[in-house]
Design a protein that fits this description.
Oligomer: single chain
Order of helices and strands: EEHHEHH
Shape: globular
Number of domains: 1
Number of strands: 3
Distance between the termini: 36 Å
Structural class: alpha+beta
Strand order of the largest sheet: 2-1-3
Helix content: 40-55%
Length: about 100
Amino acid sequence: MKLAKIYYLEHPEKNIPVYVGVAKGSLLARLKAHNEKMYGKDLCSKGALYFRKKGLKFRISQIDEVPLSEWSFWKQYWVDQFLAWGFRLANSSAGNRENK
């Protein structure tokens, strides 16, 4: 069975979760993609650029491993869980839920 990894990105200065994502391959490759994002209007891209200018990078932590066919459900589950714990996330789905 193919698996997907659910992870969160951690703010490099505050040491708190700022984004929940899914990696269908290597976590290190996914982290590199986040940290090297140059363009984009989403908060995660803007954060990566801001931190890079300060010589900092996101850190990544795996929180779950789920069947690849179920990754969407479990990613949203973890977004909701982090929001319930009081974290503010850059996920667009998190922002939409907060505004409801």
